[in-house]
Amino acid sequence: MKKTTIISGLLLSTLLNAQSFSPDPNAGTVDIDTGFIFGGETVLVSDPSDVATVSPGSVACSADGLHADNSYWRSFDLVGLGEINITSIDIGVENATSGTGGTQPIIIRVHRIANGDDLPGAALTLVTESVTTVADLLGGVANFPISANLDAATDDLVIEINTPDGQDAGHAFFIGSNDSVQNRDLYLSAADCGIDSPTSVADIGFPDMHGIIVVNGFGNVPVSYTHLTLPTIYSV
After folding, report:
1. Helix spans in 92-181 (H)
2. Contact by Cβ (8 Å): 85, 16
């Protein structure tokens, strides 16, 4: 049976062997540029407050630095944004290292939840998903085009970032994070580590792991917001 545990970075940290959580020896604080907005798009929602710095400290359900099946989750309150058209997602990356040729699989899912609901108990409705790849990267940001429409009059948003089990292929992925102020918790699920449903990373011992997620697109923004200079990050 495959033996996995939640570890930080590329050092083995196996609970069954009573080893400790250790930082990624390749990780360091890095300034990043999301920079993927074009053609009139804007940042619709983002978290944490600093989405331009990747700091050491992210964890994944892993063994020998190679990740099992992990899903990272965050909800966003869409209040004030009207009808929105999501065009892409930016994700901070602490470490993406492929064992097979420079890219590895990743799945981005957009879910709808009712206004006022939040993880972990919200009823999720899948809007769309993108099965794609992420290129090797240490300390940066990856952009993933995806198309989804939501109506803030009835909907709030959940983004799920799934990294399928990469251990046989030699893949390592650790989401980019920092400890800046966040509006909603980052959640993690990983069945191989005994976490079957989204669970706050703070509740599994990592309160300063605030995963960097930025949602870009077009919005039917109320008149009260139209004086703002684009691109604008709406703190929600």
Report:
1. none
2. no
Residues contacting residue 71 through CB under 8 Å, at least 6 positions apart: 160, 161, 162, 163, 188, 189, 190, 198
Q: Which ranges constitute the DSSP H helices of the chain?
A: none
Whether cis (ω within 30° of 0) applies to the bond prior to 56 is no
Please state, in angstroms and as integers, the Cα–Cα distance from residue 36 to each residue in 43, 142, 168, following that order: 10, 9, 32
- The reported pLDDT for the residue numbered 78 is 93
Cα–Cα separations (whole angstroms), residue 22 to 93, 97, 158, 174, 197: 18, 18, 30, 13, 25
Q: In this prediction, what percent of the chain has a pLDDT beyond 70?
A: 81
Let me know: does 144 contact 118? Beta carbons within 8 Å: no
pLDDT digits (tens, 9 = 90+) for 95-151: 999 998 899 999 999 999 999 999 999 999 999 999 999 999 999 999 999 999 999
**Do 77 and 236 form a contact (C-beta atoms < 8 A)?**
yes
Sign of CA dihedral 94, 99, 100, 104: negative
Cα–Cα dist 225/77, whole Å: 16
Distance from C-alpha of 173 to C-alpha of 41, rounded to nearest angstrom: 28
Answer for the pair 8, 57: CB distance below 8 angstroms, yes or no.
yes
How many beta carbons lie within 10 A of that of residue 91, not counting itself?
Answer: 23
What's the token pair of residue 119? 């993880």
Total-model pTM: 0.85
The answer to whether 60 touches 171, Cβ cutoff 8 Å, is: no
Residue in the block written with tokens 């699920």: 189
